[in-house]
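User: I've been trying to design a sequence by hand for this structure and keep getting stuck. Would you show me what you'd pick, starting by listing the structure so we're on the same page?

Assistant: Good idea, let's start from the same input. This is the structure you sent:
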């Protein structure tokens, strides 16, 4: 598929220079740069989703801890584990 894009002259010169150095076409340079950008964008997006899920889990734990008051979970487990 072909697209039209408006790019600044300086950017085109830099792209052409890099493409010559790499021995690739301008189209390939644009394609590879776009693929790298999108991969990084998707990685950042996934990382943000993980952060949001972790924050939600922490919030839920804090809410449960607040509901439990002074209840000591480890002590309760020891009590049941160590009983005769």
């Amino acid at each position: 598929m072909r697209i039209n894009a408006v790019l600044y002259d300086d950017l085109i010169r830099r792209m052409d220079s890099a493409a010559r150095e790499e021995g690739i076409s301008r189209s390939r340079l644009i394609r590879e740069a776009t693929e790298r950008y999108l991969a990084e964008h998707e990685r950042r997006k996934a990382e943000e989703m993980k952060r949001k899920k972790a924050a939600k889990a922490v919030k839920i734990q804090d809410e449960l801890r607040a509901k439990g008051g002074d209840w000591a979970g480890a002590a309760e487990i020891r009590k049941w584990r160590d009983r005769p």
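That's my pick for every position. To get oriented when you compare it with your attempt: Residues 9-81 form one domain. The two ends are 75 Å apart (CA to CA).
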